[in-house]
Design a protein that fits this description.
heterodimer, A: mainly alpha, two-stranded antiparallel ribbon, B: alpha/beta, Rossmann fold, 2 domains, six-stranded mixed β-sheet, 36% helix, globular
């Protein structure tokens, strides 16, 4: 089973190197919290958090090529579902998180069905998702049942795993780290399966995909429902960590954008892209805020924007892809590998 | 035994009749050519047969089953697949991965799909470019890739849309040889071709359409000598070189 032209020994070695470096990184991340203060812990938690969300978006946006601009809808559905069930019915937040995921996934199916059934693609699909997110935001803002603009305060309960609430940041760190590793493994598994190949083929060329047996409608639905499910779970984590949610913060357009940005900067349609992107962007945000936040109000935002533009100009395929080409096997130039 | 039976196939685009009451059949194991001048409606016929367009009227039976209204992937699942005149590779994927997508039509397992894809690339003589990005390969190789993708699906009836277009004489010879090979393996072929040398070399029978209407049918040599056909291609008083 040898493809002529590629030395299997090189591939084997680099594969081993990659696995070893990934495992070492995981090990380091696991023991890190012992030495860290709350500020850095929060930074890492948010980095993993955005990496998790970006990876969830990546499944439908990067792999399947369906640019959803309204993923904040699923995020907020998750946050609101687990919070409302907790506050109004006293339901365990973990259970509420799971239910939030299912409802989020259901919404994904609805939005997907309506869009794909009528052949909406590209910018039209993006607009529909954006409209849905806005629709839900205004709805949640106006209805008493969801507590409107006041938002929901997660009631304090005893610190403990069952309550999904902790005094110290450290358990949150481990939970979101686990989330991030899990979603990355899921993305990896999808990528190297029939579903992943079909997603990528749909992104590249839907007509050609149809011609060789891909049911593009069903697979797009699969992509959006899976993506929505995990995005919603992220919303619940956010609610439990920050302990306060409101319509603007959760359904806001900035949530959708941050997810997309990190995937874009890291490398759309790759497994490690969202992680790299989140690391780079979160680090940049923090550094510019620390260094330049005092200069002129908003200076750090401007510098951040410039860095973003430069990244898109000089690393158009994403930082991860650039990085991989630099250290990887020069003979391979196709996107699809590891 | 007839694989495809097309009866009174018609397609109107507003006031334009693209395909006009076309009837023909494709028999198992044969190579049928669809020829005609540019704009005659040949690719439209392919689109109608494989679910990309819906016929205005008429019926299409594939192995006795009516397939009008089915989506393209459903037609592929019924064992009939088409290629595109302008090749449509999955540009950012490697050549091997392109073919693996096709192979997944027959299996759900990545290992099996990879095995099938490697076999197909071997058959097409391009295993060495397996790991190259599809957008980086030559036109001739892209044409091979186009065929590889549909072969990998396991479809037994292939609709090839102008595979020879844009190739040098040497490349054309190679592809003709290859198409003969897959035909010998039992694949039924329906080909659209402008390169008449290829038509004569490959086809058992040919149908000629002009302005969406069938104007001749028969053995390629006879059809190409038919006055109506010559007139359709080159106007009155001309002749057609077949390179024979």
């Amino acid at each position: 089973m040898v493809i002529k032209g590629i030395d299997p020994a090189i591939t084997a070695i680099s594969r081993r190197k990659i696995i070893i470096s990934l495992l070492s990184a995981c090990l380091i991340l696991l023991i890190l919290p012992v030495w860290l203060n709350d500020y850095i812990l929060h930074f890492l938690i948010m980095t993993f958090f955005w990496a998790y969300l970006s990876q969830s978006w990546n499944i439908v946006g990067g792999f399947c090529g369906q640019m959803s601009l309204g993923h904040s809808a699923f995020f907020a559905i998750g946050a609101y579902t687990s919070s409302l069930l907790n506050v109004d019915l006293g339901m365990n937040p973990w259970l509420g998180t799971l239910i939030g995921g299912i409802i989020g996934s259901g919404f994904g199916l609805i939005i997907g069905f309506l869009s794909f059934r009528y052949g909406l693609k590209g910018p039209y699909f993006a607009l529909v998702t954006l409209a849905f997110a806005e629709l839900l935001r205004v709805l949640v803002l106006s209805v008493d049942f969801t507590k409107g603009p006041i938002g929901i305060l997660i009631p304090l309960s005893d610190s403990g795993f069952m309550n999904f609430q902790f005094e110290s940041k450290v358990p949150y760190y481990y939970i979101i780290l686990a989330f991030m590793i899990a979603i990355t493994l899921i993305a990896y598994t999808i990528y190297h399966s029939k579903m992943g190949y079909y997603f990528l083929s749909i992104k590249e060329n839907e007509n050609a995909a149809e011609a060789i047996g891909v049911d593009t409608f069903i697979y797009k639905l699969k992509a959006i429902s899976i993506s929505a499910f995990f995005t919603a779970l992220g919303g619940s984590f956010y609610a439990q960590y920050i302990q306060y949610i409101n319509p603007g913060e959760t359904f806001g357009w900035h949530v959708s954008v941050e997810m997309i940005l990190r995937t874009l900067v890291g490398g759309m349609g790759t497994v490690m892209g969202p992680l790299f992107g989140s690391l780079v962007l979160n680090f940049l945000t923090e550094i510019t805020r620390v260094l330049f936040g005092d200069l002129v109000p908003g200076a750090h935002m401007m510098i951040y924007s410039v860095i973003l533009i430069l990244t898109v100009l000089y690393f158009p395929s994403g930082i991860y892809v650039w990085f991989r080409e630099k250290i990887g096997n020069k003979k391979r130039d196709a996107v699809f590998h590891n | 035994m007839e694989i495809l039976k097309v009866t009174n196939l018609t397609k109107l685009f507003g006031g334009l009749t693209a395909v006009n009451n076309l009837s023909f059949q494709l028999n198992k194991g044969e190579t049928l050519a669809l020829i005609g001048p540019n704009g005659a409606g040949k690719t439209t016929v392919f689109n109608l047969l494989t679910g990309y367009y819906r016929p205005t009227s008429g019926s299409v039976m594939l192995n006795g089953k009516p397939i009008v209204g089915l989506k393209p992937h459903e037609v592929t699942k019924l064992n009939m697949a088409r290629t595109f005149q302008v090749v449509q590779p999955f540009n950012e994927l490697s050549v091997l991965d392109n073919v693996i997508v096709g192979a997944f039509n027959r299996t759900n397992h990545i290992r099996e799909a990879r095995r099938i894809a490697e076999e197909v690339l071997e058959r097409l003589g391009i295993p060495h470019i397996g790991n190259v990005k599809a957008s980086s390969i030559t036109l001739a190789d892209r044409k091979r890739l186009e065929i590889a993708k549909v072969l990998a699906t396991g479809a037994k009836t292939l609709l090839l849309d102008e595979v020879m277009a844009g190739l040098t004489p040497r490349e054309t010879e190679d592809i003709i040889k290859f198409v003969k090979n897959i035909h010998a393996d039992g694949i039924t072929l329906f080909i659209i071709e402008h390169v008449l040398k290829a038509v004569v070399a490959l086809a058992n029978r040919a149908i000629v359409i002009n302005y969406g209407t069938k104007i001749a049918e028969g053995v390629p040599e006879d059809v190409l000598a038919d006055n109506k056909v010559i007139e359709a291609y080159v106007g009155k008083g001309g002749g057609i070189a077949t390179g024979k």
